Amino acid sequence: MATFLFDKIIFGPVKSRRLGISLGINLLPTDSKLCNFNCIYCECGWTPDKKELKADWHPRQIVKQKLDEVLSAMKTENKALDVITYAGNGEPTMHPEFAEIIEDTIQLRDKYFSKARIAVLSNATQIHKEKIINALKKVDDNILKLDSAFPETVKLINNPQGFYQIDNVVENLKQFDGDFTLQTMFVKGKHKGQLVDNTTDKEFNAWFKLVKEINPQTIMIYTIARDTPSPDLVKVSYDELKQISNKLEKEGFKVQISA
Length: 259
Ligand code: SF4
Known about the structure:
Blueprint: E1 10-16, E2 20-26, H1 60-76, E3 83-87, H2 98-112, E4 117-122, H3 130-138, E5 141-145, H4 151-157, H5 166-173, E6 181-185, E7 188-191, E8 194-197, H6 201-214, E9 218-222, E10 233-234, H7 238-250, E11 254-258
Helix pairs in contact: 1-2, 2-3
Bound molecules: iron/sulfur cluster.
């Protein structure tokens, strides 16, 4: 399927379905994906084998210089900017200088677009590290993934490449005292002959129990929008996402839907 990689460190600005006018930052290699998950829906394609993984990180100074150049040009051209978003070809918080890069980003944002937000989309695998927690606490939109309450579903959908235990992730998420956005991808279909569906009552009820425990400020629910590496996945309909959203809102949660 036609998945794609971002071939630059800074990309956009683009109109994001979830965040507004967004300038993207890709801290991962520009010619390969680098992630400790291998989600069956990942728009960047499959995660390469360990021996093929390229951990050639863009140095902090280069990221800072490129971001300075782009923001300065956008300011001169009177362009609008809602958000600077860390996403790209994998998991941004794996970058060894992630915390320092966030400091630089805050400085540059304040200099050029003081009203713009800083967002990080992360799979929440590095939030056992104090440095990463502190960095994420400084950004405006700290968006952390949890796709299921069941280890077997996480294995099927996200396929973590290292140690991943839902209980630990839940405990780590609690460190933000609710001040973050929980992001969940709802998806159906088949993968390698196995049924995929994290919208069933059993899935929803177990996930909702964790949501109540973690108590996030916002819950972002979405479904696939582009080609996925696993070919037999299907979108969850807007109506189904709306039903999920209604149940969450009934309990007082703030929900964003991207269909
Ligand atoms: S966590 Fe994000 S980047 Fe990593 S495999 Fe999943 S969707 Fe792709």
